[in-house]
Description:
Chain A has ten helices and four strands.
Amino acid sequence: MSRRPVLDFWYEFSSTYSYLAAARIEALAEGAEVEVRWRPFLLGPIFAAQGWTTAPFNLYPARGRYMWRDIERQAARLGLPLVRPDPFPQNGLLAARVALSLREQGATPAFTRAVFRAEFAEGRAIADPAVILALLRELGLDAPGVMAAAQGAAVKARLRAETEEARTRGLFGAPTLLTADGEMFWGNDRLEEALAWAAGERPGGMR
Amino acid sequence: MSRRPVLDFWYEFSSTYSYLAAARIEALAEGAEVEVRWRPFLLGPIFAAQGWTTAPFNLYPARGRYMWRDIERQAARLGLPLVRPDPFPQNGLLAARVALSLREQGATPAFTRAVFRAEFAEGRAIADPAVILALLRELGLDAPGVMAAAQGAAVKARLRAETEEARTRGLFGAPTLLTADGEMFWGNDRLEEALAWAAGERPGGMR
């Protein structure tokens, strides 16, 4: 059995376009014969480093109004339900820690999709530990045990390291797709191109 | 002969993604049976109103590095030549005035494509009146006459009014596509969706 090329899928739980990408990536990756690594991280520290105190969609109202309308259209195209979280952005710190802590048992993708669905399809508060506990139980996981591990020092340090890696690799938004050879693709719109690049395809004339 | 629906194509001469959209829009619009209105405007005053002194690609270096790589890939996909203008962004004020002044004689699309090609395929300085004069001559237009009219008070006021209309309609970047019913699409990536909307198509479940 040959080894599949790997695509790193960097996402942030508060991010609308990450919701769309998380809903799409597995079927597309299967078709492209690419293996996806799910990499939750935090945009907050990256935004803060460039002087932003919240999401650009809040800082720049015209940009924000457009984003919501565009997300509504994109969700409709994909047949995905959409509610607008209140407040926006939601704080995704706890969810990111839990998602990271589940990597070894292979539960990160399923948990990630469950969080995005709770947040953007059902309007639930993903910063609320009770919501996260309920999602873990629904997935058949040891909810209290996972929660305790996720809030331990090791996972906290790991999430900080992941976020620092994202920053040093030049990530500025989410979702971001990174190939093994360092090619960066930003946004749900670039998912197909990122998978094709990971699989070895190159746009005309590029190497 | 039935009247075709109209799509407003708002673009800025310094904008890389406007270059791609300008190269693609006419063939796509013909296929969608949509009429395009070419509407040059200035992003500078809109950026300045939100506190930006230059393009976001310069203000946020990680975003800028990504944009150049993405544009390189997109140009390769489309088979379009690409050089990086120096300095970037170019000052598109003169080109925008000339493009606007050519509307009545129907020469705006051809002139616009010529400017984008000079800027992004040949690396010429589009703020230089000699470059604009040369492009006008190559198009068989009365170059000195056009240039004089473009720098008159009427055209200057018209460009200010166009830019103010863009701002009040919520434009925050370029290219932006606006349908007759006020639907906004931002970016070369949304060109196909904008044309489909203008032609009456709606994503599943939307009205």
